[in-house]
Design brief:
CATH architecture: Alpha-Beta Barrel
Strand order of the largest sheet: 13-12-11-10-5-4-3-14
Strand content: 15-25%
Largest sheet: 8 strands, parallel
CATH topology: TIM Barrel
Distance between the termini: 30 Å
Shape: globular
Length: 358
């Protein structure tokens, strides 16, 4: 694992190792979308991971789909995230806020305005979603007009600017996991006949325009982008043209000189090698189901520059220290992943605390 402990420069950041914290929804924000009072503690506890990518954060009211997810579009949101950023910086870490517009993955009962979700086409995902009154079927979304599309691109831009005002070191645009940007790329969710639908170039257009707007606003060296090629979360099917779409998209994003590309990798190793060849900048690879003893395998194979981790970081605020000494890890309590209080959020013990108690 020697290469895991080498330094790496990512835009304006110099990281002391090749680990990072992956974005993980925790659903503990206040009702208005302001990060909860415990969020600065949660993130700063994990600052030794170096680069912390925040939970998905909506860039607008229309971007929200789940209960108690944070936003970054009001003064209160900015003030709340500033507490998080300051706490992370005080512990020597860096914070990128992930901008997540859920698109059709929304229910009116979960949003501040109770409107239908927005999507490239009026096609429901065929899934249920948790609401305050229990599981409910996700309704058919409203197809976005060209005006809606342009407004949403501008909301991403404004949210990125707000993140920088809050003291974040950058933003990650969420173009993965079944949410709005990937919905534009998926054949079964995007049935448009205009410049945002049909051809590969058209279905990638929204993603590229969002990335360009954000990079122009805050700098390409503070703008990352996440993709999940071939994954079917949110009921998406990118179709047979999916690989070609990503080849085109990655090439176009590379021209913008974004600071990194973050790949949620489902196991198609030949395609990951193609991505590595296409992407000339820093590459983050979050490999699903990766065993601990292979955490550095993609870095050692030159398929990635950084290996983000999810549940291991959630349950082990001192993951870096534990990995260095080969210590056992706390198991993650799945029952406390989403919503709740301090339990399962900021009370996972560090190795030092366990040793003091023994």
């Amino acid at each position: 694992m020697d290469k895991l402990w080498e330094t790496v420069t990512v835009g304006r950041m110099t990281l002391s190792h090749r680990l990072a914290m992956a974005p993980m929804t925790r659903s503990r924000a206040q009702a208005d979308g302001t990060p909860g009072d415990l969020a600065p503690v949660y993130y700063s506890q994990r600052a030794s991971l170096g680069l912390l990518i925040s939970e998905g954060t909506q860039p607008s009211e229309d971007g929200q789909g789940y209960l108690f997810t944070p936003g970054i579009y009001t003064d209160n949101h900015v003030a709340g995230w500033k507490k998080v950023a300051d706490a992370v910086h005080d512990k020597g870490g860096y914070l990128f806020i992930q901008l997540m517009h859920v698109g059709r993955m929304s229910h009116p009962n979960n949003t501040p305005h109770h409107r239908l979700g927005l999507a490239p086409s009026a096609v429901a995902p065929g899934l249920e979603m948790f609401t305050a009154t229990g599981m409910q079927e996700i309704p058919v979304p409203r197809e976005m007009s060209i005006t809606d599309i342009h407004r949403t691109i501008d909301e991403f831009r404004q949210a990125a600017a707000a993140a920088i005002r809050a003291g974040a070191d950058g933003v990650e645009i969420h173009g993965a996991n079944g949410y709005l940007i990937q919905q534009f790329m998926a054949e079964n969710a995007n049935q448009r006949q205009d410049q945002y639908g049909g051809s590969i170039e058209n279905r990638a257009r929204f993603a590229i325009e969002v990335a360009a707007a954000v990079a122009h606003e805050i700098g390409a060296d503070r703008t990352g982008f996440r993709i999940s090629p071939g994954m079917t979360l949110g009921g998406l099917d990118e179709g047979a043209s999916g690989p070609d779409l990503y080849r085109y998209l990655i090439s176009e994003l590379a021209k913008l000189n974004l600071v990194y590309l973050h790949v949620m990798h489902g196991g198609n190793d030949p395609f990951l090698k193609e991505i590595r060849a296409l992407w000339p900048h820093v590459l983050l690879v979050n490999r699903a189901g990766r065993p601990l003893d292979q955490i550095a395998s993609d870095i050692e194979a030159n398929l990635a520059d950084i290996a983000p981790i999810g549940a291991w970081a959630l349950a082990n605020p001192d993951f870096v220290e534990r990995l260095k000494v080969g210590a056992s890890l706390n198991p993650a309590d799945t029952a406390t992943f989403f919503g709740g209080d301090a339990h399962g959020y900021i009370d996972y013990p560090t190795l030092a605390k366990l040793q003091q108690e023994s």
